[in-house]
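Review session, final week

We close the course with one last complete record, chosen because it touches almost every idea we covered. It is Adenine deaminase, a protein from Marisediminitalea aggregata with 326 residues. Go through it on your own first, then we will talk.
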Amino acid sequence: MNLIKLIHALPKTELHLHIEGSLEPAMMWNLASKHGVSLPYDSIADIEAAYQFEDLQSFLDLYYQGADVLRDEDDFYQLMMAYLTRCHDDNVVHAEIMFDPQTHTSRGVGFDVFMPGFERAIQDAKQKWGISVYLIMSFLRHLSEKDAIDTLNQARAYYPMIKAVGLDSSELGNPPEKFVKVFAAARALGFKCVAHAGEEGPPEYIWQALDLLHVDRIDHGVRCVEDASLMQRLKDEGMPLTVCPQSNIKLCVFDHMKDHNILSLLDDDLCVTVNADDPSYFGGYLNDNYRALMTHLSMNESQLVKLVKNSFVASFLPTDEKNHWL
Ligand code: ES4
Ligand code: ZN
């Protein structure tokens, strides 16, 4: 089988995906019209044309603005269902999906609106296609720790739907150490923990995520290459990195895909995985990201198989379910 076909055919997991970042311009346009929300765009093509970013913050500004069209339960159902349909198309059999409650609660849209919408789509996709989903509730790090603690408390009725907590948004100036208490509380409640670290931020933020937040995975983490002892630590612990190649190019973390370090990390035996991050903003879903590694980094078949196996190893699936796929 050629590599393109194999990328498609292999059952995969996706572990780093912001559901709000899967809001396609056409859906944004339709929901804006449904709710009478005015957008600063004249057409769907105009929305797409605006997606040129210089860094993480310039992207986040548009991402939060776009999320404002999500207002009722059915909007969140449609959003989740559209992503899970793409999972089915790409042979993604298990997804661990981040959502940002504060992006919605700060606009008066509560857990009782988005959680039932997500749940209905997750159940439909499970029934139709057998896809399994875990949800990761991510705290916005540009807000205070108190706001994150309030969010954890507001989620109480929905804890059974949530597998893990995460940390995202503007990394520089908002180090993991700012969130020690809320992560300790989440761990005590039995949640797994992940955090974005070493995307734009320095290796020190990855150390903090490991030592202060006690995370089970690092989201991005590509700046670990700047610190040899950190690389050794990640390798020794088999600590997974959920790497997002097309995201990193769009946000100028690397100048070009040919400069991306994912395959060199893989060849150094780090547990790296491939993910789409915010597919509608960064120009590709999961298989597009794998294909970019083939086109620009000459990924070979054994590297592909290792990356796909890592996606199961790094997941929060129970061991027997992981072993079923490995
Ligand atoms: C994000 Cl790429 C990225 N980094 C940090 N926070 C985010 N939220 C959505 N996408
Ligand atoms: Zn992310």
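Two points worth writing down before the exam:
The pocket of 6-chloro-9H-purine (ligand 1) is lined by residues 18, 21, 56, 63, 168-169, 196, 199, 247, 277-278 (CB under 6 Å).
The CA atoms of residues 26 and 44 lie 6 Å apart.
Good luck, everyone.
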